[in-house]
Amino acid sequence: MKVTIRTTVFVAASNLGPNASPATFAVGGKTPTSVVLRRPTEEETASGLSPGVGILVATATFLLPGNLESVFKRIATTVGRLNADALGSGYVEWASHRESELSTACRGVFKLIRWRLGQQGFASPFGALPTMWSFDGQSWHVLPGKMRLIVGRPFVTISPNKNRAELQTMIDNQNAEPLAQELIREAIDLQWSNPRSCLLVAVAAAEVGVKQFIAGIVPATRWLLEETQSPPLSQILSSYLPELPAPYGPARIPRSIRKVIVDRAVPLRNKIAHSGTGTVTGLELEPILWAIEDLLWLLDYYRGYSWALEHVRPETIAELGLKAP
Predict the structure, then answer these.
(1) Which of 13, 74, 175, 198 has the greatest number of C-beta atoms within 10 Å?
(2) Is 152 part of a structural domain of the chain?
(3) By three-state DSSP, how is residue 118 classified?
(4) What contacts 24+ positions apart, CB below 8 Å, involve 175-181?
(5) What SS3 class is residue 154?
(6) Nearest in space to 201 (alpha carbons), one of 190, 210, 193, 212
(7) Looking at the structure, do residues 167 and 296 belong to the same domain, yes or no?
């Protein structure tokens, strides 16, 4: 059984002329994909889109895995939108990859056009409309997906008065957000618009975080860390950190975190940075970003900020045998 999936991306300030006719491009690869660049329809502008945006629609037909046939039949006959998680992890993984594949095709076409025409503008001017799917190309249904507002911690309602005394103490002590935490935030902002740049910044955040942690715990090492070649990150995480006299005991980093960073993130970063041949998608970056975030929060915890443990994933805390806050 086959399904056709259609992903729509809009581009702010696309500079499409008022009389521009739709342009269709064939994108090769594992699944042949058609990408159409056009102006918004009257229906789309009526729904709130600016007439000045550009619309990119990627359409491709996929062979549906046998275990998902009943799931898609259920979606087709259900009134209203279904929660993606209720459809099973197999569906979520398959649908997310297809949606990411088509979204990447849209963005790639527009970036190529922008480069060829020398068009200026934002690095990531993209937004997304609901992805649709169909059995016959005539009757279309919304593809249930997981809402991704941000990779990492969910949005938290800030109540500064609740922690006012603690915050004031931190201000008085001239505490500031570590550079590594700033870098991982910047990396997360790039996850979907520039995945390769995201990876480069994220790994840099891990390396900077580790170096600054060591320099903070053992000030005598600061000059060596800043001026000489450091040992491999794998060796530092597994052997060196646990030996440091940190305020909250040995700085142990879970094996699962080390494995993602050392075995996946660093080699891929090296491939991209040194040879320019590596590729990575926003979806593939999720476990890497999670791992580096947990690493940085753990380093904050070990350096004496007990509250940092609140931001570490429960499974990471459990692996360490620590008591969840």
Answers:
(1) 198
(2) no
(3) coil
(4) 178/209, 178/212, 178/296, 178/300, 179/208, 179/212, 180/205, 180/206, 180/208, 180/209, 180/212, 180/296, 180/299, 181/205, 181/209, 181/296, 181/300
(5) coil
(6) 190
(7) yes
281 within 8 A of 195, measured Cβ to Cβ: yes
Structure tokens at 166: 């603690």
- Which H or E element spans position 103? helix 89-117
Retrieve residue 17's tokens.
């002329």
In the beta sheet, which residues pair with residue 37?
23, 56
pTM exceeds cut of 0.85: no
Distance of CA 173 to the CA centre of its chain: 33
Lookup: tokens for 313: 């994933």
DSSP 3-state percent helix, strand, coil across the chain (nearest 5): 55, 15, 35
Measure the N-to-C terminal CA separation of the chain; round to a whole number of Å: 48
Please tell me the distance from the alpha carbon of residue 23 to that of residue 103, in angstroms, as a whole number: 17
Q: How many domains does one find in the chain? A: 2
Same domain, 205 and 123: no
On whether the CB atoms of residues 301 and 308 are closer than 8 A, the answer is yes
Same structural domain, 316 and 189: yes
pLDDT tens-digit series, residues 32-63: 999 998 989 888 888 888 888 889 999 999 99
| Type of residue numbered 161 | N
Contacts (Cβ under 8 Å, ≥6 apart) of 133: 3, 4, 5, 6, 72, 75, 140, 141, 143
| Strand ranges in 53-99 using DSSP code E only, listed in sequence order | 54-63
Alpha-carbon distances, residue 19 vs 15, 22, 38, 39 (angstroms): 11, 10, 10, 9
Consecutive H or E run containing 5: strand 2-11
User: Residue 182 has which token pair?
Assistant: 């700033």
128 or 201, greater pLDDT: 201
Q: Which domain holds residue 276?
A: 160-320
Give 86's pLDDT tier (boundaries 50, 70, 90): confident
